[in-house]
Amino acid sequence: MLAYLVKRVFQAIAVMFAISLIGFAIQDNLGDPLRELVGQSVSEEVRQQLRDELGLNDSFVTQYVRFLGNALQGDLGTSYFFKEPALDVILKKLPATLELVMGATLIIVGLSVPLGVYTAIKPNTILSRLIMGISIVGISVPVFLTAILMIFVFSVELGWFPSYGRGDVVHVFGYWDTNFATADGWVHILLPSVALASIMLPLFVRLIRAEMMEVLQSEYVKYARAKGIRPYRIYFIHALKNTLLPVITVGGVQIGTMVAYTILTETVFQWPGMGFMFLEAVNRVDTPLIVAYLIIVGFIFVVTNTIVDLIYGLVNPTVNIARMGA
Amino acid sequence: MKHFASTLAVATLTATLSTAAMAEVTIKVAYDADPVSLDPHEQLSGGTLQLSHMVFDPLVRWTKDLQFAPRLAESWEQIDETTMRFKLRDGVTFHSGNALTSADVDWTFDRLKASPDFKGIFAPFTDVEVVDELTFDLKTSEPYPLILHTATYIFPMDSQFYSGTTEDGKEKAELVKHGDSFASRNLSGTGPFTVTEREQGVKVVFDRFDSYWDTASEGNVDKIILTPIKEDPTRVAALLAGDVDFIAPVPPTDLKRVEEHDGTTLITEPGTRIITFQLNQNRVEAFKDARVRKAIDYAVNNAGIVDRIMRGFGTVGAQASPAGYLGYDESLTPRFDVEKAKALMAEAGYADGFSVTMMAPNNRYVNDDKIAQAVASMLAKINIKVDLQTMPKAQYWPTFDERAADMMMIGWHADTEDSANFHQFLTHCPDETTGNGQYNSGNYCNPEADALMAEANATTDQTKRGELLRKLEGILYADAAFIPLHWQNLAWGARDGVHAEKIVNALNFPYFGDLKVD
């Protein structure tokens, strides 16, 4: 177990290093940050002077070594736009994003299990066909389109939900403000969570359905039936437990993917999280912030994957983690 | 005694009622961007000027019909060729409680001269000389016609407030372009609002300044909550859903929706930003021939672009200066005649046409990429084959600086609201030492036009100056120095009861201090 952990930490560091190098290498192609910092009629001479001050005229190696040296001391650079350490900016935006992902996860977990199980047990009912049909649509419609449609239906036409922002948030600690403490906060987070969940939910319904159908064909289920165990006990205790193993693995990886998908959802709903911030940073050529974002998101991916592997080992002890590490 | 008590009770009740009747007026405003900093001199941009008009106040400001209205300067007079004497309004105080004096103007002027973004505009000015508490002279090195134009950029800062050092030993007045400074986080102006809360990129909260000098203004808004909403559909939805009271800009695709929706009003004005294409004579031999340039101008259907692509939301242009500017010449009309264009091409010896490269941004101007595509297909009709490439503005500007294509799109708004500015940056012979022609990717060069501009910039007689600038526009038109397309219109959306039509202007900084809400 320990050997495995140590190995994963080294892997994580290697991945971070690779990400920082790639992030740093592409920044030259993102555009000229000075254009966003100064007015249009500022002379080239003044701009050149500012580039010198920012260290943008140094060679790639000089810039990268400087960046790496600072990064090792926890300094990922200063955002041009926010004028604050990039890490601070991201940490301030992180709670909003995590709450959004949490909201979407709740919806996915709460709906995918019953829907998946139902469509597996009764695959031929009209309701099942409807659910499967909708899930196909859900997978194929891009998330920003879903989001815009929802805004127009539920905010503009019906006036049930607010169209943008986080609403009333309650301070918890540090940079963390929560949406889950007020009614207004709940109302604000609902539409964005549904939009974000809309891509993953159909995937999970289909996954659980497929796994469940396979399990229901297995010998031990047939045996349990023969023994006269009540159906709901077979479905929800015996079968579901085995169905969920692969779902957890996929799910963990998808949480990381979902953090990436927040870029679109947050932009449409003006959700003040780090996905929205990232897109803005790209538009503004705020290179320190872009690189810092890539590193942090990479970090989230690595951490969730590690945790998923560990949980997998706990749920299914036959998987030998120590051997995986060796 | 009992009688007294009841009188008191009635008095208290009345007092309570009247405060209730004067309930706070709060409006929510959504813009596509928020100011980059609270420091008015950090960046010369629309967002900064918008903020300046809310929390500072200029010496003079533009009216709706592009005239000058006195603000902090009550009156002014030219006392000699190079000196304009201003008289400040008496009894104006800053948010800090300090009184506004000539010394503050002097201090602000020096800071403007040191600002990378503003020093270009203030280059012709040498000094502010304080005459007394409320009188000062604004001096130029040579007779200069744009003194009042420039005075719209002088928003006096509170020199006492911004002087001294912060706790960590930094100068409070320090102007930092890409970092933290006292001025980028704190402010004290004379304007109608103070900033009480700010989370960059998320929201800014403005509260009415109780001691605002302009008591004659009918503005009654106590609180403004500004949210930047970058996505067009979200911003429009927020207005239609009633989540915000005022939005800018309204995208061309949603004009009708805002106009026809119950409870919202669409407000539009012709803007002053011209969209053009430049023809690079250094890269394409044919572009050196005025007949070819003219043929291209004849081939491009400006009116069609405004009608189809801009959905009528632009003003068809044939010159750089919009109506209202001194150089605007109404006799210059858009050229569109494909047959004539073909004839001109044949005359110049290019009947079989040639191939060119074209570049345009795809997120800088309204419908920029679609306009470029349309122009490319129009040029195909006169046998000019266009290889078009569009890219986000962040990549476009460095490419533009490299003059990387034969035809490049550029839009321009004159910081000085003056015709000469267009020529200075877009069509003047490129000159690295003076910075003239900095955005002239066409390398058009006409000494006669440059001489006219120089003469106009030293002429203070406005009538004579107007003649010179009109002559300049005429030369550029005759030469087809560039391909003018249209001026982008401006559009705002407001909830009914928000009387925004009175406070918006072609310059796109609404005077929120004067906003009246029912």
Automatic annotation (TrEMBL), chain A:
It is found in: Cell membrane. InterPro entries: BPD_transp_1_N, MetI-like, MetI-like_sf. It comes from the Bacteria. Gene3D superfamilies: MetI-like (1.10.3720.10). GO terms for cellular component: plasma membrane. The chain crosses the membrane at residues 9-26, 100-118, 130-154, 185-205, 243-264, 290-315. Pfam families: BPD_transp_1, BPD_transp_1_N. It is a multi-pass membrane protein. Keywords: Cell membrane, Membrane, Plasmid, Transmembrane, Transmembrane helix, Transport. GO terms for biological process: transmembrane transport. Residues 94-312 form the ABC transmembrane type-1 domain. Belongs to the binding-protein-dependent transport system permease family. This is Dipeptide transport system permease protein DppB. The lineage of its organism: Bacteria, Pseudomonadati, Pseudomonadota, Alphaproteobacteria, Rhodobacterales.
